[in-house]
Specification:
Layout lengths: L4 E12 L2 E12 L3 E6 L5 H8 L7 E6 L2 E3 L4 H6 L2 E4 L11 H6 L5 E2 L2 E2 L1 H14 L15 H14 L4 E5 L7 H16 L3 E6 L2 H7 L2 E6 L2 E7 L5 H9 L17 E11 L6 E11 L2 E6 L6 H9 L4 E8 L2 E2 L5 H7 E4 L3 H5 L6 H5 L10 E2 L2 E2 L1 H15 L16 H14 L4 E5 L7 H16 L3 E6 L2 H7 L2 E6 L2 E6 L6 H8 L13
Parallel strand pairs: 3-10, 3-11, 6-9, 9-10, 15-22, 15-23, 18-21, 21-22
Antiparallel strand pairs: 1-2, 1-4, 4-5, 7-8, 11-12, 13-14, 13-16, 16-17, 19-20, 23-24
Helix pairs in contact: 13-14
Length: 513
């Protein structure tokens, strides 16, 4: 069987200050298989793959390709060995075109001149062969996240890689895009490419992986065939305890209106057209209202309009009866909690410490002040309490630089900070993106708890399971408009999908068309 392994990572140990991220891990990838790497946030999955891709050097252990020991000092060595990686946070240059991003670092030249025509033909052939349609002349900053991921995949294929690493590839995709990606991965495996697939979405692992290796707190728990296991067993292996895969909640008891939106219009800054068109809805105390939809149908711009990140061109936004349509971001953020879609751009200052990030909006409060200076002791003990409550894993506790934390733990830090600011409205955009089942279970419980305390929750989610199980009312956005209001207890995932795809919409009278 040994000869069948294309990659062997043997006894890999990788340490960071205060943490052993990989503790004597052995992983074997067979030729032509899809091998999933499963584990909680901070279990060491991305670190292990970064060692394979040459981004980190291990303290101990060795890597073999086709039985031969190889030294991977940097990503160029990895590329030369046919190893490619799609990172959880994409490594693209926003102001470059799609084509320039794909060929960057692997340019074909002739007499010192760039041969773009040949490159374009090769990329076009790849995109048609694998159904990865992209606009090669669009700038990366102007395309959706799903499209950016296609660019990352084409980057790997352009370099003729045979070992493909996908780090949390579906964290930012819509259900339809996830299905497409799964099919693409299967077609890669059929052609003999070998795939390592980091995920903590059990449905996806069960659907595409041949084998799964489970990591927990930096150690390898075991490798099993997916056909011999189920979701509950995998979640137990991953978290070390039984996990509730269903949301537990009592029926909502809505009270007064917290958020009232009337005739809202928000212009898309890039394409200079209405991204949000004449949208009206409300959120009451003690209910979770979910905005569902395929990514790119105005949900992001709607949230920007509500939180002040984008100006509204028409309509009103009222918070607890007060018109905040023209209020400053500072004023709004003082009265609503916002878990943003892009944790790096709008959620954290990556080069600040965890404790600095935890008081970004609150350092002016009396409890964090000391004669006009920040009371560092108060900030530290406050941060330590949140770290414990939300199980935020960081190598050096409150003084950890946020950039060095795993994506899931960055997300937990934002959620801890925002839910602790007792505001009447919580705007939660994809709050469980990139989180494992144990953390998702906890965050869902927290949101239900906040609802039961009488807060209004506006949830924006692309996860159909989350939409169906967490929301009390579902509003579907398509093409910048709200095309349906559904009761999660009375609808199905299929019906929801029809509204999301624009195949069905409600008339003004509330009847389906």
């Amino acid at each position: 069987m040994e000869a069948d392994n294309i990659i062997e990572m043997l006894h890999i140990t990788k340490e960071f200050p205060g943490i052993v991220a990989n503790d004597d891990i052995t992983l074997q990838l067979r030729r032509g298989e899809i091998h999933a790497l499963l584990g909680e946030n901070g279990a060491g999955k991305s670190t292990l793959m970064s060692v394979l891709f040459g981004l980190y050097q291990p303290e101990a252990g060795q890597i073999r390709k086709n039985g031969q020991v190889v030294k991977i000092q940097n990503p160029n060595d990895a590329t030369a060995l046919g190893i490619g990686m799609v990172h959880q946070h994409f490594k693209l240059i926003d102001v470059f075109t799609v084509l320039d991003n794909i060929i960057l670092g692997a340019e074909t030249t002739k007499l010192g001149f760039l041969q773009k025509k040949a490159a374009r033909e090769k990329v076009q052939a790849l995109s048609e062969r694998y159904g990865l349609k992209v606009d090669l002349d669009a700038k990366v900053e102007d395309i959706t996240v799903g499209m950016q991921q296609r660019v990352e995949i084409l980057k790997m294929l352009y370099r003729d890689n045979e070992i493909l690493i996908f780090d949390e590839p579906t964290a930012v995709l819509t259900p339809q895009e996830i299905e497409e990606l799964m099919e693409t991965m299967k077609s890669f495996a059929k052609e003999g490419k070998s795939i390592l697939f980091i995920s903590h979405k059990l449905n996806e692992i069960m659907a595409v992986a041949d084998r799964v290796t489970v990591l927990r707190k930096g150690k390898c728990v075991g490798t099993i065939q997916t056909k011999d296991t189920d979701k509950q067993a995998l979640s137990n292996m991953m978290v070390g305890r039984p996990v509730q895969l269903e949301v537990q909640k009592t029926p909502a008891k809505p009270g007064k209106t917290v958020l009232e939106v009337q005739g809202l219009r928000v212009v898309d800054r890039i394409h200079k057209r209405d991204a949000v068109r004449d949208v009206s809805f409300n959120v009451r105390e003690g209910e979770i209202v979910c905005i569902a939809g395929i990514d790119g149908n105005g949900q992001s711009e709607l949230v920007y309009g509500l939180t002040g990140l984008e100006r509204v061109s028409a309509g009103t936004v009222k918070l607890c009866g007060q018109d905040i349509s023209r209020a400053t971001i500072h004023h709004r953020s003082g009265n609503m909690s916002h878990i943003p879609e892009d944790r790096h751009k709008h959620g954290l200052v990556l080069d600040f410490t965890l404790e600095q990030n935890m008081v970004l909006q609150r350092f002016r409060e009396k409890r964090f002040q000391n004669a006009g200076f920040i009371n560092k002791g108060a900030v530290r003990s406050y941060t330590q309490a949140l770290i414990r409550q939300y199980d935020v894993r960081s190598g050096q506790g409150p003084v950890t630089v946020v950039r060095s934390m795993s994506g899931g733990n960055q997300q937990k830090a934002i959620i801890a900070r925002e839910l602790d600011r007792e505001n009447p409205l919580i705007v939660a955009v994809q709050p469980t993106r990139g989180l494992d089942v144990g953390a998702i279970e906890y965050i869902h419980q927290q949101l239900v708890e906040e609802r039961d305390k009488g807060r209004g929750v506006l949830l924006v989610s692309l996860e159909l399971d989350e939409v169906m199980s967490l929301s009390d009312r579902i509003l579907v956005m398509y093409g910048g408009e709200i095309v349906g209001e559904l009761d999660p207890k009375k609808t199905t995932v299929e019906e929801l999908g029809l509204y999301m795809a624009g195949a069905k919409r409600m008339t003004k009278g509330g009847r389906a068309q």
